[in-house]
Specification:
Blueprint lengths: L1 H27 L29 H5 L14 H20 L3 H23 L4 H15 L9 H25 L23 H39 L8 H27 L3
Helix pairs in contact: 1-3, 1-4, 3-4, 4-5, 4-8, 5-6, 5-7, 6-7, 7-8
The protein binds zinc ion.
Amino acid sequence: MFVDTVWEVFAGIFGAMLGSFLNVCVYRLPRNESVIRPRSRCPSCGTSIAWYDNVPLVSWLALRARCRHCRASISVRYPLVELAVALIWAGSVIVAGVTTEALAAAVFLTLLLGIALTDGRHYVIPDLFSLGGLALGLVFAFLPSDRSWYLAPLGAALGYGLLWVVRAVGDAALRRGLIGGKELDTVLEEGEQPTTMGEGDLRMMAMVGAFLGPAGVLLTVFLGALVGSVVFLPLRLAGKHIAVPFGVFLAAGAAVALVFGPGLVAWYTSTVLAL
Ligand SMILES: [Zn+2]
C-alpha cells in the first residue's frame, strides 16, 4: 500500500519534469531549434533561467508567473502542461500499477499532448513525436504483455495507409474544386501544393497504430473525425475559414480510444449491432 503510493508520487514528479521538457519541445521543435541546447531562456529578455527558477509547477508559483529579471509574464500554459503530464503519469500508475502497460500508456498520452499542442498552435506535428513515438510503440510491443506483438506493426501500417487513402481522395476533390481549399493557403509555404492533410498526420497515425493496434486506429479516426466535425462544421457554416489542425482531433480521439477503447467497442457491438 505504502509502496504503491511512493510509486504514484514518483510517477507524478517524473511526469512534471517530463512536462517541463515537453514545454521546451513544443516551443522549439516547430521553430527547428535544438531541444537540448541552449538551456531555457526567458523569451522576453533572453536571460538563462537558473535551475531554481525552472522547477516544474513550483517556480511558476514562486515567481508569481513573472520572469525574475524582466518581470515579463510567463504563460499559465507552462505549469498547466507540467500538471497535465504529472497527472498522466501518476494516473497511469494508479490505474495500471507499475507495469509495462502503465509506462506505454503514459508515454503515449504524453506524445499525444505534445502533438495536440504543436499542431493546435503551429499546424506542425514534429517527427520527434510521430516517428520517435512510432519507434517507442514498436519497442513496447516486443516487451512482455498479454497483447500480440504483430498488432503494433499492423496498426502502424493501417494508420499510415488509411490516412494516405483519405488524403488522396481529399486532394482529388480539392483539385476538382469539390471542396474549398482557400483556408489551406494560410499554412502553405512557397512552392507547396495545397493538400487536405500534412505528412505529419500520416506519421502520427502510424505512431497511434503502433500503440493501439488496427482496431484502435479505426476507433481513433472515427472519433477524431466526429469531434473535428462537431467543432468545425458550425465555423464552416458560419462562413469562417480556419485551417483544421486535424492532429488535435486525432490526438483527442486516440486518447479516448486508449482509455475507453475496449469498453466502447463492446458497447457498440452489444447495443448498436445487437450481437
Ligand atoms: Zn525575462
